[in-house]
Amino acid sequence: MTESEVTPDLGWLLRRILSPAHPAAELNSDAIEIDSDVASRLWASCSRNRLEPLLEDAVVRGTLTFDPEVTDALHRRVAAHMATMVRLEAAALQVCCLLGEAGIDVRVLKGMATAHLDYPNPALRHFADVDLLVQPEEFDDVLAVLEESDIRQKYSMRGGYWQVQHSMPISVGEFEIDLHHRLLHQAAGHLMARADLFADPESFVIAGTELRALPAPLRLIQAAGQNVLSVGQDKKSSSDADILLLLHVVDEAYELANSVDLGWLLDAGLSRAASVAEVPPPPSRSEDGPMGRIMRRAYESGQPSVIRSTLLEAITAPPSTTARVLWSAVAPGEDYLRVRGRTRSDQLRHQVSRASSGLRSLARREAT
After folding, report:
1. What global pTM score does this model have?
2. What are all long-range contacts of 327-331, with beta carbons under 8 Å and residues at least 24 apart?
3. pLDDT tens for residues 115-148?
4. CATH architecture assigned to 10-287
5. Is the pLDDT of residue 333 over 80?
6. DSSP SS3 for 213
C-alpha cells in the first residue's frame, strides 16, 4: 500500500485501537510507507494529542514505516515519556500509600487508570500528570496527612477555595498531582456528585501495591467530560482514544449519566471521538432533563463558556457553597491570580466578559 492510496492521520491511528469486533476497526496489516514530511506532520499531531505511543506501536508492528532517522527519534521520544510516567506513577503511589495508611479511600483517575485497565499495554497511554479522587468531606484531612510528609498544594488559595474547584494541584517532588473531590468540571461536576463515585471499584497493581480506580462506565463518563469540557490546550485526542476503548460499557454509562442529567455529555463526547476517528457514533440514549437541555443547548451553540460560567455553577452547586462560588469568581486569592497572571480587576473583567458573551450567544440562538 502506498501513500497515494492512504495517508495516515489521527483517525487512522485511533481506528487501530478499536475492538476487532467493531465494524469500523482498522484491520489492514499491510505496511504503509510515508515520506519524512508526512511523518513529521503526523508525529506533530500525535505529540499535541498525547498519541505518540500509539504512533510508535504502529511503527513497531510494521503497519507504518518511517525513514530510519524519524523512527529512531520517535523511539527516543517515547522512551523519554515512559521514563517520566514511571516516576509519575511512583509519586502517585507515594500519595496513595500515605492516604491509605491514614484510612482515606482514593481512586486513581484518567490516564494512569485507563493505561492499566483499558489499554492492551499500559505503555500505549501517555499521561503528563496524575489525578486522584477523594471524598469531599475528607479533603481537609487529605491535605493535613500530606503536609505531614511535606507534600503541599502547588500554590495557595483563599481558605476553602478548593470547594469551588473540582481539583487542587499538589507538588510531589518534581511532579504535579491533581487532587479531585469532584469527577468533572464546574456545573457538570456538581451534577455528577449525586452519583456514588466510590462504589464498585476496579483495581490494578503497581509495584506490588493494589490501587483502585473507577468502574468502567464512570471512566467512560469522565473521558467524555474531559473531551467536551476541556478547552484549548487541555483538549487532547488521548480522551478520544479512551472513549473508543470503553465503548463496550456505553449502555451502563448512559444509564448512570441519565440518572444525573448528563446524558448530553456522553452524546457530545462520543460524537467527538467518533468524528476524530471517522467512525459512526453509537446511537444516543440520552434522556435530557431540564438541566441537561440547558447544558446541551449551550454546547450546541458553540459557546461552552456558558456551561462553564459562574452563574450555571452557582445554580448546580450545593446551597452551602453557592455564595463562595460567586465570590471566588472575582476574589480567588492573590497567589492564584499571580499564577494566572491577572490582577483582581483583570479577573473581574474576565468573568464578566466570559459570562456576558456566552449569554448573548445563547439569547441570539433562542431568538432564531
Report:
1. 0.84
2. 328/158, 328/161, 328/164, 331/158
3. 999 999 999 999 999 999 999 899 989 999 999 9
4. 2-Layer Sandwich (3.30)
5. no
6. strand
The lowest-confidence range among 144-153, 207-216, 228-237, 299-308 is 299-308
What torsion do the CA atoms of 321, 267, 201, 116 make, to the nearest 10 degrees?
Answer: -120
Question: Directed axis angle between helix 344-367 and helix 290-300, to 10°?
Answer: 100
Q: Using CB atoms within 10 A of its CB, is residue 88 exposed (0-12), middle (13-18) or buried (19+)?
A: buried
Residue spans of the domains in the chain: they are: 10-287, 295-368
Q: What is the Cα–Cα distance from 50 to 236, expressed in whole angstroms?
A: 7
Give the span between the Cα atoms of 143 and 184, in whole angstroms. 20
Neighbour-count burial of 40, counting CB atoms closer than 10 A to its CB (0-12 exposed, 13-18 middle, 19+ buried): middle
Q: What is the pLDDT of residues 53-98, one digit of tens each?
A: 999 999 998 888 888 998 999 999 999 999 999 999 999 999 999 9
Are the beta carbons of 149 and 98 closer than 8 angstroms?
yes
Average pLDDT score over residue span 320-349 = 61
The answer to whether 16 and 8 have CB atoms below 8 angstroms apart is no
As a whole number of angstroms, the distance between CA 243 and CA 220 comes to 6
What is the side-by-side order of every strand in the sheet holding 167-172?
152-153, 167-172, 175-180, 130-133, 107-109, 209-213, 202-206
Burial of 100 (0-12, 13-18, 19+ CB in 10 A): middle
Contact 223, 239 (CB under 8 A): yes
Q: Is 202 helix (H, G, I), strand (E, B) or coil?
A: strand
Q: Contacts from 3-7 at CB under 8 Å and sequence distance 24+?
A: 3/32, 3/33, 3/34, 3/35, 3/38, 6/32, 7/34, 7/38
User: Measured between alpha carbons, how far is 215 from 249 in angstroms, rounded to an integer?
Assistant: 10
Give the containing element (helix H, strand E) for 357.
helix 344-367
